[in-house]
Design a protein that fits this description.
The protein has 395 residues and is α/β, with parallel strands linked by helices. The chain contains 17 helices and twelve strands.
């Protein structure tokens, strides 16, 4: 009998959506029916729009968002609890109505306010499993609530941050989800031929993850003037996409994209990836085997994640100005040799997810196929990532 799962994501950035897609694919391969809900939309037309506007305003003043994150969200202050209650007053009734309309056996949250709302409804349906997946290195207060059956995290630091608020929480350490397309990315020669990039030419992928941070257009123009072919992805930032496409019309080394499913191909074609330190983009680049140049522009949890990505290796950071990005990218290109073809046994995060969810009675083993066809499971994210980075560093 098919079972139903709800995935709670959010419209702030693209990382949550990509994680939800990865998890949906695993669930559906195991025979589950899935549907994704946008936690911001569940706040209602006015509440969701207001929430996105407030969040955007906070991010535009980095010192303000840093103060909110480090002094309140990460510590679990009374102000953070007040924020949680305010969002829950709208989100919990909306989610309750949705789950009554279409019941679910599992609610998997990849967004903080969704995680909090699902936990608050646990007592109304004890048989429904509530699971949280957070790929941040510091899991802040809004992610962690009584009523969550299982927390999936991707580092020991994240596990400790969950237990800061719930000392007896059930926590499993798993690799970061990465969509199958990145494990089957084309070779660099094939990707370059498809995109019209000359063999052997220096090539950088600059990718915006949906936030619109930083001097992306200026950095792209600088690199192109220095002889670098630049693949520039604007995500869902339409104004940024228009500016990049305008630049591409006058600069033949620039290829501009908006929101695109061709990111595996673009990463394969590039020698290195310039991005924010989002866990999703960083994990994808590491699967494809590309070094990272990370921009310290995402305040709050972005600062935590940047340090973690640098510790994992295979990543550098730079001064986030057009001149700083250009200088660091050119220096990185000088140190990068041509990447070897992608090899590996496939998406190795899946067995770890299957094993973790078995702890709460969720059986996804059909998604792995016959036992002989399943790749070896990795016990945690950090060792598996380091193994891939050792291969990158050996080139």
């Amino acid at each position: 009998m098919s079972r139903d799962a709800v995935l709670l994501a959010g419209s702030l950035g693209l990382g949550h959506e990509m994680m939800a897609r990865s998890c949906s694919g695993l669930l559906e391969a195991a025979g589950w029916r899935t549907r994704s809900l946008n936690s911001m939309s569940l706040l209602g037309p006015r509440g969701g729009a207001a929430g996105e506007k407030v969040f955007g305003r906070l991010l535009s003043i980095p010192s303000l968002y840093d103060g909110l994150h480090f002094a309140h969200l990460r510590t679990g202050s009374r102000f953070a609890c007040w924020m949680d209650r305010g969002a829950g007053a709208r989100l919990v009734p909306a989610l309750r109505a949705e789950l009554r309309r279409r019941p679910a056996d599992l609610v998997l949250s990849v967004f903080a306010t969704g995680a909090s709302a699902a936990a608050k409804l646990k007592a109304e349906a004890p048989q429904r499993r509530t699971v949280v997946l957070c790929t941040d290195v510091a899991v802040h207060r809004l992610w962690v609530s009584e009523g969550t059956d299982l927390f999936l995290v991707t580092s020991e630091a994240a596990a400790a941050s969950v237990r800061r608020f719930l000392p007896r929480a059930a926590v499993s350490l798993v690799p970061r989800p990465v969509r199958d397309a990145f494990y089957s990315a084309p070779s660099q020669p094939d990707a370059r031929q498809s995109l019209g990039i000359p063999p052997g030419a220096p090539c950088i992928l600059l990718i915006d993850s949906g936030w619109g941070f930083g001097p992306l257009v200026e950095a792209v123009a600088n690199l192109a003037r220095c002889g670098v072919h630049v693949l520039a992805v604007a995500g869902r930032q339409q104004a940024l996409e228009h500016r990049l496409r305008s630049l591409a019309r006058s600069e033949p080394r620039v290829r501009a994209f908006g929101f695109t499913d061709r990111v595996p191909e673009l990463m394969a074609a590039a020698d290195a990836v310039v991005a924010l330190p989002g866990a999703t983009t960083c994990s994808e680049a590491r699967v494809v085997g590309r070094p990272l140049l990370l921009l310290d522009l995402m305040p709050g949890h972005g600062r935590d994640n940047l340090l973690h990505e640098l510790e994992l290796g295979g990543a550098e950071t730079c001064v986030a100005t057009p001149a700083g990005i250009t200088a660091s990218a050119l220096a990185l290109l000088e140190r990068v040799t041509r990447p070897a073809p992608l090899t590996g046994s496939g998406p190795r995060w899946k067995p770890a997810f299957v094993a973790a969810l078995q702890r709460v009675g969720i059986d996804l083993s059909p998604a792995l196929g016959p036992p002989s066809a399943a790749p070896d499971a990795e016990p945690a994210a950090v060792p598996s990532t380091r193994t891939r980075l050792e291969k990158v560093g050996a080139r």
